[in-house]
Amino acid sequence: MKSSSSAHDGKALSWQVREGVIELALHREPCNELGSLSLEELEMFADGFDSLQHGAHALIIYSDMKAGFCAGADLRELYRRSQAMDKTEALKSVRDFLERIHRVLNLIDAAPLTTIAAVHGVTFGGGFELALACDLIIADKMARFCFPELRLGLIPGFGGIPRLKRDLGNAVVRDLLLTGRSFNATKAQQIGLVSQVVGEAEALRAARATAAQLGKFDLETAAAAKSFIKPIPHEELRQEIDIFCELFSRPAVAAGLKKFVESTEAQPYLP
Amino acid sequence: MKASPMATADQTLDEILNLASAHFKVPREKLNPDEDFFKALGIDSLQTLELLTRLENHFHVELPDYELQGVTDFRTLAEKIQARL
Question: What contacts B82, CB < 8 A, 6 or more positions away?
Fold first, then answer.
């Protein structure tokens, strides 16, 4: 792992500043599952975010993995860790993880510069939540979004519901959340979630072109506009952590996690 | 290769087989409409999602994945798509 004030090349993610744009690349096999390793590196990114932003006008988050942007929380690690602890310890560990990832995502959400998620392929669960923390989502036409958490007896825990509710109508949120169905980039654009749908493997190029356009504007004005129209739903984010932890302590969740981890089915994200 | 707006069930099935053959590099003649497409194409869960997205994009339909649960052969898949054209 190589790291300096303006660049980092880690096991789960890397970042560099390129023409005034911070580019954060996710590259953990198989599809950027968010576990303790990714979180540690995301926290490193968050800790250096202030100094990285000097001279930068945009942040692009993208994935180097072929399968997609991010498949969400590392459920295998979550299952292993919760099996190795007693209930109270497991719950404390989950709450701690959620608090830490919320800190990172809140920081990205509230960043004065403009943030773009350039997504392709699987953008599920926590991956979808990471994209939702950004100001713009630019999607490759093969991108697929989903909140599959209900299959585990949980709700999204990385800020998904409050942020989705901030951006979309409540009826759409209920559909996506309660059915747990996945949907493609075209649908995501139709419901107002995605700003641009581009050809296969074109999301990063389109995000860079968009970031170049953003660089033409006064940074303070852009930051003021963003802060005016994109409030952080702090209270609901807190509630989400509490509800997640309350649900997590039920036996149905351990059973759901076990089923997922042991599944050999072609659609394991479905109940 | 564009989906026909007035495709018959047979045409839909044929387009699915052609699309699957082209994208998953399996010779068209080796794909049987009634066989298990997971096995025929040798695809895993992430590739299954890719197939679903390719079919939606090709036919300009929305296919809720829970409707496809338990669907394993090309012919039934074609019927599900045909019902949404």
Answer: B7, B9, B12
